[in-house]
């Protein structure tokens, strides 16, 4: 008999527990008190523990009252016929074509007001921080940590890429899992393809143009990083920055009142393209070096999506098995599903959690490949240095060395 | 707990914490009820009695709610709460309030308990065990009780006490050695700690 079995815990009497509970709850109230928030109709989505999927929760409800006025100047974002990616610091947003939204920050929270178009978000667990909201008309999506997409047009659609949600509306409740969509038109839940052909990620190209304005008239074009003030520890610092997007040719975009649109330089003013062959040659060489995948790598989008869900779950464990699962997840995301952003996050998580893992070389090489895919810019070179510092030898090491010297 | 079950618990933790911070009615009560049993059991096994338990539990959960915003979900909520509980226990031990009076066994005993010889002997053994644990350093007592009595793996004990695994192992080993030395002259205590990895 173990010592634990020999020391039975004497239970506390019920009356004693009740009194204790009352005191604790009473003491907790002022500790948890927050600035008063506008009430919202409780179409609260409960997190269903469908545990075959990642640790994410989304609450969808009808929000009749907006959150408090922004504590900082709102930022407006609009795209033309091409999408782009925006790093909010709290989330990465794939913005579809012809999309307009505003980002409002309040007391540490953040709200995205979608006027039209498509946005797809990847949001890490908020735990402890005020929630992130996406508002589309009278539909509010309260985010704890998830991957999902909201479309607002004639109706509002919520599509969950990973996780499980319950949608409450008009007294009815629907459960929406990863790979499914809920629509305000009929309240039905339908399955969608793993890779939506009309999603913002598919529409995003290397020539996307993006505008952003603030109240003080600051304008930025191209890749956007709208995270908190510099120096704050956030996603922007832990993840690969948004890809560099070259300026787009001018397009006849009509700006909204109070918003100015920055167009790319005219054709006549476009600077000559830099000499391509050396860069293209080096990038082609990077792609040519194979990335050995984990055993039993899934083929086909459906199989890959299921495999990624399983790998994500397995990666939450500990030890060598979790490391292998996390590497397999990154490989699936990058090579089978074409989700570079998700793959980079998985790779960064691997590097943080398993700095001496058995798959480190493959992890750092895939990371280098993904970051260098669009351009041999600073993040690409930093990744090359990271690889070279650990694995200087062989063909890959030589390639990485050349990348560090590229300009 | 299986990976799948741990994942489900993680999901529920995130939602519950979010509800607490949103000030939703009943969320704080739910969080308290979900974790009070485990925290109570841990404190009991460290301290050996329910004396002062109300105050200790209240102190633990007041700290939990006071610092709930700092939970970053990198560790499970249970682990995070256990760290707070262990700190509270450590301070309690260090303040020398944990010395068990000789008559505490009767205070804790249910009023309708039939005191058989065997049970009385077992309770006396537990009393002597905690009297012996009282001679250990707070860190040593924590490491030993969390590992040997609360049944936590060494790595987990290290994590929630904020020590290295090596230091934790050493503390447990020293505690075992000290207990076996004390048990050499006490047959009741010796019988109780007979299965504890001994003195080596």
Task: Tell me what the structure shows.
With 407 residues, chain A is an alpha+beta fold. Helix content of chain A is 31%, strand content 23%. Chain A has eleven helices and 16 strands. Chain A has a 16-stranded mixed sheet that branches. Chain A starts with a helix and ends with a helix. About 28% of the residues of chain A have low confidence. Chain B is mainly alpha-helical and 200 residues long. Helix content of chain B is 70%, strand content 0%. Chain B is built from ten helices and no strands. The longest helix of chain B has 21 residues. The radius of gyration of chain B is 18 Å and the shape is elongated. The chains are: A alpha+beta (407), B mainly alpha (200). At the A-B interface, α1 and α2 of A face α1, α2, α3 and α6 of B.
Please give the oligomerization state of what you see: heterodimer
Q: Sheet with the most strands of chain B?
A: none
Estimate the strand proportion of chain B. Answer: under 5%
Label the structural class of chain A. alpha+beta
Taken in chain order, the helices and strands of chain B follow as HHHHHHHHHH
- H/E topology pattern of chain A: HHEEEEEEEEEEEEEHEEEHHHHHHHH
Rounded radius of gyration of chain B (Å) = 18 Å
SSE arrangement:
The complex is a heterodimer of chains A (407) and B (200).
Chain A: H1 3-6, H2 14-32, E1 57-62, E2 75-79, E3 84-87, E4 92-95, E5 100-106, E6 109-123, E7 132-136, E8 139-152, E9 156-162, E10 164-169, E11 172-177, E12 180-183, E13 189-191, H3 200-203, E14 210-213, E15 219-221, E16 224-225, H4 235-238, H5 276-288, H6 301-314, H7 319-336, H8 340-353, H9 360-371, H10 378-390, H11 394-405
Parallel strand pairs in A: 1-10, 3-16, 6-7
Antiparallel strand pairs in A: 1-8, 2-5, 2-14, 3-4, 4-6, 5-6, 6-8, 7-8, 8-9, 9-12, 10-11, 12-13, 14-15
Helix pairs in contact in A: 6-7, 7-8, 7-9, 8-9, 9-10, 10-11
Chain B: H1 3-21, H2 27-47, H3 53-66, H4 77-94, H5 104-108, H6 117-133, H7 138-149, H8 154-161, H9 165-183, H10 187-192
């Amino acid at each position: 008999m173990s010592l634990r079995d020999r020391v039975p815990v004497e239970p506390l009497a019920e009356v004693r527990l009740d009194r204790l509970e009352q005191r604790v709850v009473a003491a907790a109230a002022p500790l948890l008190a927050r600035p008063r928030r506008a009430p919202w109709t409780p179409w609260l989505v409960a997190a269903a523990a469908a545990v075959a999927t990642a640790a994410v929760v989304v609450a969808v409800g009808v929000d009749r009252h907006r959150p408090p006025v922004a504590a900082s100047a709102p930022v407006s974002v609009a795209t033309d016929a091409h999408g782009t990616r925006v790093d909010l610091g709290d989330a990465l947003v794939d913005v579809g074509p012809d999309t307009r939204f505003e980002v409002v920050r309040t007391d540490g929270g953040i709200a995205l007001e979608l006027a039209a178009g498509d946005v797809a978000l990847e949001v890490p667990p908020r735990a402890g921080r005020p929630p992130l909201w996406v508002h589309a008309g009278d539909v509010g999506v309260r985010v704890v940590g998830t991957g999902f997409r909201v479309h607002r047009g004639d109706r509002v659609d919520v599509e969950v890429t990973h996780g499980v949600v319950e949608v409450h509306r008009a007294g009815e409740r629907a459960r929406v899992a990863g790979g499914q969509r809920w629509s305000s038109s009929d309240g039905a839940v339908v399955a969608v393809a793993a890779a939506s052909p009309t999603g913002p990620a598919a529409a995003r190209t290397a020539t996307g143009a993006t505008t952003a304005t603030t109240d003080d008239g600051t304008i930025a074009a191209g890749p956007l990083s709208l995270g908190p003030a510099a120096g704050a520890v956030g996603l922007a610092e832990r993840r690969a920055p948004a890809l560099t997007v070259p300026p787009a040719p001018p397009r006849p975009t009509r700006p909204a009142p109070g918003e100015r649109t920055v167009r790319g330089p005219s054709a006549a003013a476009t600077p000559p393209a830099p000499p391509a062959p050396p860069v293209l040659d080096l990038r082609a060489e990077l792609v040519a070096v194979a990335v050995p995948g984990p055993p039993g790598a899934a083929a086909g989008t459906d199989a890959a999506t299921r495999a990624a869900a399983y790998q994500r779950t397995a990666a939450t464990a500990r030890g060598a098995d979790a490391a292998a699962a996390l590497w397999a997840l990154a490989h699936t995301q990058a090579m089978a599903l074409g989700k570079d952003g998700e793959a980079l996050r998985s790779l960064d998580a691997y590097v943080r959690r398993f700095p001496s893992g058995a798959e480190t070389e493959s992890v750092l090489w895939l990371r280098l490949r993904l970051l260098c895919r669009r351009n041999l810019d600073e993040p690409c070179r930093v990744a090359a240095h990271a690889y070279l510092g650990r694995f200087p030898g062989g063909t890959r090491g030589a390639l990485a060395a050349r990348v560090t010297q590229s300009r | 707990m299986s990976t799948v079950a741990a994942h489900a618990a993680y999901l529920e933790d995130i939602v519950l914490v979010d509800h607490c911070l949103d000030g939703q009615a009943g969320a704080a009560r739910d969080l308290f009820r979900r974790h009070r049993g485990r925290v109570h059991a841990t404190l009991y096994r460290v301290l050996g009695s329910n004396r002062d338990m109300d105050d200790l539990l209240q102190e633990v959960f007041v700290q939990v709610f006071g610092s709930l915003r700092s939970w970053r979900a990198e560790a499970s909520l249970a682990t995070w709460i256990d760290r707070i509980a262990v700190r509270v226990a450590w301070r309690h031990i260090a303040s020398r309030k944990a010395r068990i009076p000789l008559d505490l066994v009767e205070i804790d005993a249910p009023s309708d308990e039939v005191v058989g010889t065997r049970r009385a002997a077992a309770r006396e053994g537990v009393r002597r065990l905690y009297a012996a644990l009282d001679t250990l350093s707070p860190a040593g007592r924590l490491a030993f009780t969390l590992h040997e009595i609360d049944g936590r793996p060494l790595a987990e004990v290290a994590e929630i006490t904020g020590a290295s695994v090596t230091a934790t192992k050493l503390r447990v080993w020293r505690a075992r050695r000290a207990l076996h030395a004390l048990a050499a002259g006490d047959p009741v205590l010796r019988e109780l700690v007979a299965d504890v990895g001994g003195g080596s």
